Amino acid sequence: MFLIGGDGDVIMHESLRGPRSGINEFIYIRLSLLLSFFLTPKPLFPLHQPPFPPSLYNQFTSNTTMATQTAGHGQANGKEFAGKFRTYEDDRNTPSQDTLYCTSNGVPMPHPYETQRAGVNGPLLLQDFHLIDLISHFDRERIPERVVHAKGSGAHGTFKCTKPLDDLCIADVFAKAGNECPVTVRFSTVGGESGSHDCARDPRGFSVKFRTEEGNWDMVANNTPVFFLRDPAKFPHFIHTQKRDPATHLSGSDDSTMFWDYLSQNPESIHQVMILMGDRGIPDGYRFMHGYGGHTLKLVNKAGDWVYAQMHMKSKQGTKFITQEESANYSPDHSQKDLFTAIEKGDCPSWSVEFQTMTAKEAEQLWEEQKINVFDLTHIWPHKQFPLREVGEFTLNENAKNYFAEIEQVAFNPAHMPPGIEPSADPVLQSRLFSYPDAHRHRVGVNYQQLPVNSSRTSHRVANFQRDGNMAFYNQGSRPNYLSSIEPISFRERSVDLDKVHGQFISSAVTFLSEIKPEDFNAPRALWEKVFDDKAKARFVSNVSGHMSTCRYPEIIKRQIAIFRHVSDDLATRLEKATGIKGYEGIANMRFNGTHNGMASDPKLRHANGMSGKVSSSAHDHNGAPIKGTHKADSIDHAGTNGTRVNGAATNGANGH
Predict the structure, then answer these.
(1) Which residues are identified as catalytic?
(2) Are 562 and 587 in contact (CB under 8 A)?
(3) CA neighbor of 213 nearest in space, from 463, 416, 456, 492
(4) Which helix (H) or strand (E) covers residue 37, if one does?
(5) Whether the Cβ atoms of residue 508 and residue 307 lie closer than 8 Å to each other
(6) Which letter does DSSP use for residue 97 in this model?
(7) What is the rounded distance in angstroms from the CA atom of residue 344 to the CA atom of residue 349?
(8) Residue 562 near residue 568 (C-beta atoms within 8 A)
(9) Are 632 and 503 in contact (CB under 8 A)?
(10) Backbone angles phi, psi at 113, to 5 degrees
(11) Number of H helices, E strands in the chain
(12) Nearest 5°: phi and psi at 206?
């Protein structure tokens, strides 16, 4: 029997070696030379053709030069690592052939299936740490799945700035052409569980972690430019309607009652419903869909001036969709398989990164003249007025080595913004700034940002005064955990005047709930009348009526058809014919439990939930939009020229779709 030694030599097992003299010595040397040729570990890939990016390949080759096991000693990967901590990259890139089977505390074991028993036919022994270690860890392998976006896929790649945005934003990643940073992207469905079908009719999550030189920037986006709601307190309620019924435990596929009940009581959802039930409702995999930030951000330049901005990520592969009928023929993991396989064979997908921008003055005018609210997640910015400006692109060229470590544990937080990018007063965005990191601390742990996939990659050594907590790994050594004068920490001067960027809010505290208004139907109407062709309209009606067929209460369908009637009477008539249910003539005589009705014919029907509004009303005429005078004079007068709007065009359909 022969084993490979720590330095690559072939070693004869002691029990077979015997005295080395004469012919025995000759045979030993010859066999050693022969076996060393065949058994010495070779690189898994030719040196001239690395299977992944050079940075990872260099790390891989440096790690895999380590030899395999030393007989009888249990020293994996060479003596030079004895007494040292191994790195995440070492673990990620080491093949199984270079490892030794051990318990979790590093003790080598002869076989993973063996157990200790009280005699051959007796019960198990509690002292069998190997078995207890194995089973107890298995019992804890799962962390809570995401409440939303549980079914997902992802990959790694690189962002490259192609057209600087330095006139509008001081963020280093946009400072000059050629600037690059690594990215991790996670795509997902929204409502389904982790094991659900990824070709379900559902919005898609589209989150990107840009690891910039100034810290991580997380763009937590969707594949639709709008969402179902604009009041943040509605979010848990809406998501509950996307889950299983608490009594029957049926999903929306078998019982759509909760889904349509919510929509029929919150008519501002109509814009997203038009997109969801249209062709974009089931994209043909993640490579063939766009991404939209949805929320309004602020970009700040070196002069301290700022503009409002919306971010778009345009698929360079184009867009494709799957019809409702076709979706039944696809694998539940079609999107995952398509993304992984494409990258594996070198067909790496990419997206351009583009911005729409407007000044504070333009935002006020947009509401006053067109009733478009930049703080409203159900509204879009017209592309003809606010064309897209390309700033860069990212390409996904590396699949995860370990899905759980790199995709399931990746955590995106819209509050992660480098200098030069700031949040707006969009109330749903403001709520998400808290909700996302709060969910991560619950689901992954308080130190979730210490996980390699979530940590930043900056040239400066990151330090703060956060310590301890569950699974603290990088606990900042013996450095003081307070602002110390004995061992002082370094600081960098502020680069953004936050007082100027966010200082326009001077107001009394108010209660607020949005109300449905005629302008909320303008963009949905443009979709039906100017974007959908005849075949798309027919598919839309089929999709809606088919989904409504499992709704148990006709009253809900009557209300929803009334909402569709404000989009188009033609659409409502088609749905009545398809469902066999006559809808109401409109919403003027309806009260909603979730939304104030700004179109009610009777003032008694205006307030949501039947409240009278006598003491105070949470309805406000401008629906939370930035009306004239909202911004301070310096925000209006010193906002610059809004950059160079020269490389955008209104090519995405009517009214910005």
Answers:
(1) 149, 222
(2) yes
(3) 456
(4) helix 23-39
(5) no
(6) G
(7) 11
(8) no
(9) yes
(10) -95, -10
(11) 19, 14
(12) -145, 90
Strand 291-292, strand 306-315: pairing: antiparallel
pLDDT digits (tens, 9 = 90+) for 158-171: 999 999 999 999 99
* Contacts with 637 (C-beta within 8 Å, 6 or more apart), sequence order: none
Instruction: For residues 147 and 193, give the distance between their C-alpha atoms in angstroms, rounded to a whole number.
Output: 8
Side-chain-facing half-sphere of 365: CA atoms under 13 Å:
7
Cα(first)–Cα(last) distance of the chain, in Å?
70
The closest of 186, 197, 268 to 222, measured between CA atoms, is 186
Helix H, strand E, coil C: the string for 328-386 is: CCCCCCHHHHHHHHHHHCCCCCEEEEEEEEECHHHHHHHHHHHCCCCCCCCCCCCCCCC
Helix-helix angle 554-567:569-579, to 10 degrees: 150
Q: How confident is the model at residue 257 (pLDDT cuts 50, 70, 90)?
A: very high
Mean pLDDT of 466-488: 89
- Give the distance from CA 273 to its chain's centroid: 21
Of the pLDDT bands very low, low, confident and very high (cuts 50, 70, 90), residue 124 is: very high
| Residue located via tokens 């934003």 | 169
Per the CB < 8 A criterion, the answer to whether 371 and 626 are in contact is no
Which 3 state secondary structure label does DSSP give 285? coil
Please state, in angstroms and rounded to a whole number, the distance separating the CA atoms of residues 144 and 443. Answer: 6
Q: Identify the CA nearest to 366 among candidates 551, 6, 631.
A: 631
Name, in order, each residue with C-beta under 8 angstroms of 594's C-beta and a sequence gap of 6 or more. 234, 237, 262, 265, 266, 608, 609
CB within 8 A of 437, min separation 6: which ones?
Answer: 411, 413, 415
Kindly report the backbone phi and psi dihedral angles of residue 542, in degrees, each rounded to the nearest multiple of 5, phi listed first.
Answer: -65, -40
Q: Is 516 helix (H, G, I), strand (E, B) or coil?
A: strand
When pLDDT is averaged across residues 567-596 and rounded to a whole number, the result is 97
- Determine how many CB atoms are found less than 10 A away from the CB of residue 28: 15
Q: What is the 3-state secondary structure (H, E, C) of 156-207?
A: EEEEEECCCCCCCCCCHHHCCCCCEEEEEEEEEECCCCCCCCCCCCCCEEEE
DSSP states along 440-488? HHHHT-TTGGGSTTTS---SSPP--S---STT-----TTS-SS--SSSP
Provide the token pair at 137. 């860890």
- CB neighbourhood size of 269 (10 A): 27
Q: What is the distance between the alpha carbons of residues 482 and 652, in angstroms, rounded to a whole number?
A: 52
